[in-house]
Write a structure and sequence with these properties.
two-stranded antiparallel sheet; 36% helix; Rossmann fold; 8 helices; 6-stranded parallel sheet; globular
Length: 209
Amino acid sequence: MPRSLRIGFFLDGYTLKKVNDYYRNFHRFHSAIDFKSLRVWVEMQAIRYFEGENFRELEMESHYYHPYRNPHLNEVEREGTLRLEQQLIAAGYTVHFNKRPVFDDIGPNMSLMEDALLFAMYRKMDAIVLLSTQGEYAPLPDRLRLMGIPTLLLGWNFIYPKPKHNVHWKTDSYLRRTCAHYVAMEKVVDRGNSENASRGFFFQPARKT
């Protein structure tokens, strides 16, 4: 009897912070990722890449791995971090804060890799969708593959200017090679103009008064 297709969506907040900075400050859209629209789009891609005749519907867990420590445990409240947490929860994500000892020492939240393996093992995931560009996660798809679980990687390549040089932000090549599927997200979001993009992946840009 057909059963549900079980997907785990794991979002690297460090990568998304860089992506949002790029689209806000350097890209013609001047906007930011809409977490709810992104999750809906990921559901459609999961069906496209992984659904077979043995599945009747989709079940997806969405997890966001924040690059910052938990602001609830810090003496200095980070208003922006708390506001982002509220947006993510409203959009259907579970938020996982970083365990790094220094609040301002940001980087990939490595709990993502450990949790993805545990969720895949104990919650019996059929496939994993990973949004990241970071090579620190490169061992994850291979470990999942040994468990019979394929990975769809959502990555970004883009260039933006700095005062003395251009910054080339690229998805780690080894991470790409270890995944069963790869989607170049910069191409996906650039297919339309800024108006229809804002109704998809992006928030509506704020109007100037």
